[in-house]
Design a protein that fits this description.
By secondary structure, the protein is α/β, with parallel strands linked by helices. The chain contains twelve helices and six strands. α11 (204-213) links the parallel β4 and β5 (217-221). Strands 3-2-1-4-5-6 form a six-stranded parallel β-sheet, sandwiched between helices. α3 (50-68) packs across α4. The chain folds into two domains: 33-48 and 122-246, HAD superfamily/HAD-like (Rossmann fold, 3-Layer(aba) Sandwich), CATH 3.40.50.1000; 50-118, no CATH class.
């Protein structure tokens, strides 16, 4: 009986099972316990984009209309045409000082930004979520907005104190989009691996698909609730709940 039992013992199967369990534990440890940093997009993620829209679609056209002595709507349509001509594929598109120089405007772009700081408004759940996550992780900002916009938004909203680092693709790395190289450069600067970071933002391609491809756990923030999925959320509170389940 003993010999027969020994003959039917499949050691390879036991080893295979052990390896699968071990790999599962390693994957669990890697994706859950090793998360050190949470990265946030800014506009339309933490803060409503009323500030940026007001500057580009109201403030700058008003200044142009006044200095060129034309109607506001005419000025606005002209600027929209100019914005489209440059396109968001060029770094100048994001640079407020560039447009003042291009249009030969005498007003101060810094004063323009300050004049609209009163419209800066975080989403209702933003600060409470940041307060809690700040106690567990290093929080950073990753945005393609210029630092001139980011700085005033974080300062005026009172959110600056929650972040250890703020990165602008256009100001810091001269990249117009949050491409894979941009995320890798940030990980290198922070001395962390991609799988030690979680990122969330409202752009499906650049905030979700791109970082996901290089191993960053990514969430797509879709406040309109037009998309659903394991890594799609409709607000930051839901995001907080999802990442808490990663550590169960």
């Amino acid at each position: 009986m003993q010999g027969k039992g020994f003959e039917h013992l499949d050691v390879r199967e036991d080893v295979s099972l052990y390896l699968r369990v071990y790999k599962g534990l390693v994957d669990f440890m890697t994706t859950v316990i090793m998360i050190k940093t949470i990265s946030f997009d800014l506009d339309d993620t933490l803060i409503k984009r009323t500030f940026a829209d007001s500057v580009w679609l109201e403030g700058l056209p008003k200044i142009y209309a006044e200095e060129k002595n034309i109607d506001f709507e005419e000025a606005k349509q002209h600027l929209l045409k100019e914005y489209d001509e440059i396109t968001d594929k060029r770094i100048e598109w994001y640079d407020i000082s560039y447009w003042f120089t291009r249009f030969n405007l005498k007003h101060s772009w810094k004063k323009l930004l300050k004049n609209y700081k009163h419209v800066i408004e975080p989403y209702p759940e933003t600060e409470d979520v940041l307060k809690r996550l700040h106690e567990k992780y290093d929080l950073i900002i990753i945005s393609n907005a210029k630092k001139e916009f980011i700085d005033i938004e974080l300062e005026e909203s009172g959110l600056k104190k929650y972040f250890t680092h703020v990165f602008s693709s256009t100001s810091d790395f001269h990249k117009v989009k949050k491409i894979a190289e941009f995320y890798l450069m940030i990980c290198d600067k922070l001395k962390i691996k991609p799988n030690e970071m979680i990122h969330i933002g409202d752009h499906e391609e650049f905030d979700y698909n791109t970082p996901k491809k290089i191993g960053i756990t990514s969430f797509y923030l879709n406040r309109n609730k037009t998309n659903k999925g394991k890594f799609t959320v409709s607000n930051l509170k839901e995001f907080e709940e999802r990442i808490s389940k990663l550590s169960v």
